[in-house]
Amino acid sequence: MEIMSDIARPSSPVSSFLSRPNAPVIVLLAVTVIWGWTFLLTRLSLPYIGPYAFVGWRFGVAALAVVLVTRPHPASFTRREITSGVTIGLILFLGYGLQADGLRTVASGESAFLTALYVPMVPLLEFLIFRRRPGLFALAGLALAFAGLVLVSGMTGLSFAFDRGQWLTLGGALGAALEIVLIGHSALTADPRRIAIVQLATVSVISFAVEAVRGGIMITTHAFPFAAMTGMGLATAFVLVAQNWAQRSIPANRATLIYTLEPVWAGLVGAAFGEIFASAQVLGGVLIIASVVLSQWKS
Questions:
Q1: Average pLDDT over residues 277-287
Q2: CB-based contacts of 238: which residues, under 8 Å, 6+ apart?
Q3: Quick check: 116 and 124 in contact, CB under 8 A?
Q4: What is the number of other CB atoms lying within 10 angstroms of the CB of residue 187?
Q5: What is the average per-residue pLDDT within 157-164?
Q6: Cβ partners under 8 Å of residue 258, min gap 6
Q7: pLDDT in tens, 133-159
Q8: Sign of torsion, CA 37 41 43 49?
Q9: Cys-Cys with 168: which of 84, 102, 112, 227 at CB 3.0–4.6 Å?
Q10: Which residues, 6+ apart, have CB-to-CB distance to 120 below 8 Å?
């Protein structure tokens, strides 16, 4: 995206920072910290507002923020941009909507570790959809991810102990993996800023619609959830811009390794606010992070 260049005026501190060789890495590290906080903020907001309404507000704010920054002309949107944006937006809704729904019963740190499974899921989906054979390290990463999943789930004996929230979170991880697979295999010759607006708006509209069908959109007078939704919406817009800018100069596999810090931050934030993890769950989280690193290793 070119938004970064719009923000970073010549001779400004931002421009000076962005010109540094390590700036993309620092930006992506900041992204992981922001995402790490979103899990707990979402969970703390859910007693006051439905999960899909929360996602709808968050992505609506993000869409509005990108529109205000980029100021696209309505006539500039092409059919390809709208079609692609709506399709990917639907998948994004599945990822973020199911994750938020799962956070009603799943601890924020646990949710982050389960969500991180989207990385080793990618080669499996590529094989199932496009018949692209996964490499040895990708298969080893899948095996390690499964072992970590078993431990994080809180298995008893030889049986899984998944609850509804954990299944929803896994569904969200699957949605994130599917988004990566489809984007990676599409030959889009469209403006990423306009596609981003369509994606974000699609997530917002579908989320509010689902919340309405589930029993109506719950209105609350509490300031915290609205502050959290608005702040996370602005953060989502920033992250969207930051990721597109930083990953122009950082290989995808290296960026993915940086993203493994996201569940680490989420776990630390959750622990700081009183979430308790069993030793087996901590070990499972470590194995999941290791599976992400292993699956990105080049043969």
A1: 81
A2: 34
A3: no
A4: 4
A5: 63
A6: 25, 28, 29, 32, 250
A7: 877 877 787 788 778 777 776 655 445
A8: negative
A9: 102
A10: 138, 141, 142, 144, 145, 291, 292, 295
